[in-house]
């Protein structure tokens, strides 16, 4: 079950945190993983760690918001691995240059980073691999999103939520267009993950945890396991869905 041997997976933004967990698990299930990140050293570290476990990975540093760079890197990785990408996990979604402020305080030049990364970055990766998936009759696309896409929150995340809800709409239409080719596309809407603890005080984390029924933050390896299911043959009957993976949080 959930065997990925013989598959080639591209995981964007996989140089740390959630993407690292996803790349690690896909490789443990047998996929050859292209570990992408904006920062070469992050991608190299994760790829080396996967190889040290006895699995297959290569690092490819590129900016997913740059279409030409994305296509060139994907073609180069495919040549190196000797096959086409047939699993894509669009994980990169936290823009380096995003400005976290209430919308009233944002100026129009500060709107694009989260929207560009979450919408165009994800679309660029899809475009780079979609023909190969459709022509071969098999493909799996997993879009990492957030509960913020569907729930208003007073946490200065309006641009991030705009990007996430935009890409969710795209993925639903993509799923409708590509099901006939054996290509599925699903959305995983995450709740707060373990790396939040690096950004907040223990008191803030304790408060957040009271809103999460399982009583803890998310674990990237568990997210990876869910992505492995969505990337597998066995998930072929599910497409176009938004699946909450948030510890049961009602606030999303
Ligand atoms: N961490 C959470 O609590 C949480 C909650 C909900 C949803 N998510 C989603 O999960 C995904 C991963 O989040 P995370 O917290 O692990 O992020 P992170 O910031 O810890 O790691 C993301 C990685 O993406 C890379 N990256 C950023 N811009 C890129 C670009 N243009 N091209 C290629 N790589 C790029 C970064 O260098 C970084 O290494 C995101 O889509 C995020 O929106 C996270």
> What's the CATH topology label?
Rossmann fold
**Strand segment count:** 7
Radius of gyration: 17 Å
Uncertain spans: none
Tell me what the CATH architecture is: 3-Layer(aba) Sandwich
Distance between the termini: 30 Å
The main sheet orders its strands as 3-2-1-4-5-6-7
Helix content: 40-55%
Largest sheet: 7 strands, parallel
* Main CATH class: Alpha Beta
Organism: Nocardia speluncae
Main location: secreted
Family: Belongs to the short-chain dehydrogenases/reductases (SDR) family.
InterPro entries: NAD(P)-bd_dom_sf, SDR, SDR_fam
Give structural notes:
This protein has 252 residues and is α/β, with parallel strands linked by helices. It is 42% helix and 15% strand. It has seven helices and seven strands. Helix 1 (17-28) packs across helix 7, helix 3 (67-81) packs parallel to helix 4 (112-136) and helix 4 (112-136) runs parallel beside helix 5 (158-178). The protein is globular and about 50 Å long. The model has no long low-confidence stretch (mean pLDDT 97). Bound molecules: nicotinamide-adenine-dinucleotide (NAD). Nicotinamide-adenine-dinucleotide binds next to helix 1, strand 2, helix 4 and strand 5. Nicotinamide-adenine-dinucleotide (NAD) is lined by residues 12-13, 15-19, 36-39, 42, 63-65, 91-96, 117, 121, 144, 146, 190, 192-193, 195-196.
């Amino acid at each position: 079950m959930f065997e990925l041997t013989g598959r080639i997976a591209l995981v964007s933004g996989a140089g740390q945190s959630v993407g690292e967990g996803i790349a690690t698990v896909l490789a443990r299930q047998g996929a050859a993983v292209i570990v992408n990140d904006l920062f070469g050293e992050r991608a190299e570290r994760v790829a080396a760690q996967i190889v040290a476990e006895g699995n297959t990975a290569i690092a490819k540093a590129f900016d997913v918001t740059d279409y030409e760079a994305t296509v060139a890197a994907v073609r180069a990785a495919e040549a190196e691995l000797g096959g086409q990408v047939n699993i894509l996990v669009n994980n990169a979604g936290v823009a380096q240059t995003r400005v976290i402020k209430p919308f009233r305080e944002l100026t129009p030049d500060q709107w694009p980073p989260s929207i560009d990364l979450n919408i165009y970055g994800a679309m660029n990766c899809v475009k780079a691999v979609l023909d190969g998936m459709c022509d071969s009759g098999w493909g799996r696309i997993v879009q990492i999103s957030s509960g913020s896409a569907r729930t208003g929150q007073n946490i200065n995340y309006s641009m991030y939520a705009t990007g996430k809800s935009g890409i969710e709409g795209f993925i639903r239409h993509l799923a409708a267009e590509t099901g006939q080719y054996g290509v599925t596309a699903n959305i995983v809407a995450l709740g707060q993950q373990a790396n939040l603890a690096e950004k907040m005080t223990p008191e803030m984390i304790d408060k957040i945890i009271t809103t999460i029924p399982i009583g803890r933050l998310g674990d990237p390896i568990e997210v990876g396991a869910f992505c492995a299911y969505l990337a597998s043959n066995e998930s072929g009957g599910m497409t176009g869905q938004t699946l909450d993976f948030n510890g049961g949080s009602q606030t999303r």
